[in-house]
Amino acid sequence: xxxxxxxxxxxxxxxxxxxxxxxxxxxxxxxxxxxxxxxxxxxxxxxxxxxxxxxxxxxxxxxxxxxxxxxxxxxxxxxxxxxxxxxxxxxxxxxxxxxxxxxxxxxxxxxxxxxxxxxxxxxxx
Length: 125
Description:
With 125 residues, this protein is an alpha+beta fold. The chain has helices at residues 32-44, 100-107; strands spanning 7-12, 19-20, 46-63, 69-84, 95-99, 119-124. It has 2 helices and 6 strands, in the order E-E-H-E-E-E-H-E. Strands 2-1-5 form a 3-stranded antiparallel beta sheet. It has a 3-stranded antiparallel beta sheet with strand order 3-4-6. The protein is globular and about 35 Å long.
């Protein structure tokens, strides 16, 4: 987590080990940005201050355990990372931070190229 430039937080997906932004289903009774912050902790061990406004979105096809596919729109939220824990629930994922341009290329979501902070996703299906 560098101090001098904007970075994108990516984690590896569980199935394909591709680089993706942390994302998850919205949680009942929780604002979307709070769900995104929770996913960032669960998948990458990062904690910080999350913006309540989405900085963008992108379409995503979520593959379900039963083999089905759900079309989702992922809302992306900025998080100013204050710390990264040594242990977190999804530690089997490999987290990494990269520059904004490299992050948008790795993730394959062009909407990520203009973010001011590391983006975090909350799926809206």
